[in-house]
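[job 4471] stage=fold_predict status=RUNNING
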Amino acid sequence: MVSLDVGCGNRPRGDVNVDFRSSPQWKRYEDKLFICCDAHCLPLRSKIFDAAFCFLVLPYVHNETQVVRELNRVLKTNGRVTIRHNLLLVYLRTFFKNARQPLNIARRIYLYMFRHNVQNSIINTFQTRRGMANLLRNNNFTVKEIRRINDILHIEARRKKFDSSGT
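[job 4471] inference complete, writing structure tokens
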């Protein structure tokens, strides 16, 4: 079974590991392949992986849908994808701890998102179980399991046999 880890950081989980910047700690893992590239356009052939991991990456990419499409492209039929994703509560906890006036919370959220380059689509699409399930279903995945582990959504899905183009 050949696996891919998108956004591996310092902890590679796959046989092939992708991140947008290299890490000096990669030298410790001689048995693994590392590729420094953008997750929106993976320089890999189509349908070569049995499994893919994407842990705590989607909130930080520019186009979450494109990353999920790339995962779909590189996975074999019935390939498994495991995604872990921060809930909105993680972002909001900072404001509720520091807010002196409850009326300013919405303003603080907007300013935080603007300063930290957090996209509005994250709020609309990805911070709920339904939003994550819809994202995967719309991109040729069958959702097998969604569960909450503390403030993290853990999603297991499989690539469908046929996508919209019939391949």
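[job 4471] summary: The first strand starts at residue 3 and ends at 6.
[job 4471] exit 0
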